Amino acid sequence: MAEPVIAQKGPYEAEVEAGKSYLWCACGRSATQPFCDGSHAGTGLTPVKFQAGETGTVFLCGCKQTCDKPFCDGTHGGL
Length: 79
Description:
Blueprint (H helix, E strand, L loop, with lengths): L11 E5 L4 E4 L23 E4 L4 E5 L19
Antiparallel strand pairs: 1-4, 2-3
């Protein structure tokens, strides 16, 4: 299995809609960060599906090292 690529050392600010499902890129290779575009194919890594509980802004992990996938937990501060 490949290691995730650090897409950026900071979170992605994203607008989400309540009840809608999203696929967060866990591999760091997607051209549509922070969301999956299928670039993980062949890496052994898979995106993380999540459903928005409410409409608004979320901060999704850009370094792909978070312990709270898909949300930023500040891990990028130590990279």
